[in-house]
Amino acid sequence: xxxxxxxxxxxxxxxxxxxxxxxxxxxxxxxxxxxxxxxxxxxxxxxxxxxxxxxxxxxxxxxxxxxxxxxxxxxxxxxxxxxxxxxxxxxxxxxxxxxxxxxxxxxxxxxxxxxxxxxxxxxxxxxx
Length: 128
Description:
Layout: E1 3-8, E2 16-20, H1 22-25, H2 32-41, E3 43-47, E4 49-52, E5 64-71, E6 74-82, E7 87-94, H3 102-112, E8 117-123
Parallel strand pairs: 3-8
Antiparallel strand pairs: 1-2, 1-4, 2-7, 5-6, 5-8, 6-7
């Protein structure tokens, strides 16, 4: 299994590792409206993100977003890459089965869960 490595605020900071899910979720794109609705439910934090892909290469870091969902049962963190037409899940961190349809799972969590805490980390200068 390969991993994305994401550092926040400094290239020397300890990396967060996200399991690569592109084989499962690579073609599923969420519309920008989904991100706007999500931002209304939670808090948005601007940070410098430094992203290294599973291949070991640095990436354009202003195209990545981190979405954290937590409740009394635990926390799941999604690494997402933005495009002109929307966003797609490229990595996940936490107790989640990546063989599931992650896009449907994410939408169901947000649709039916009332006590969920949402945090979105965006690159500095990014507009939702």
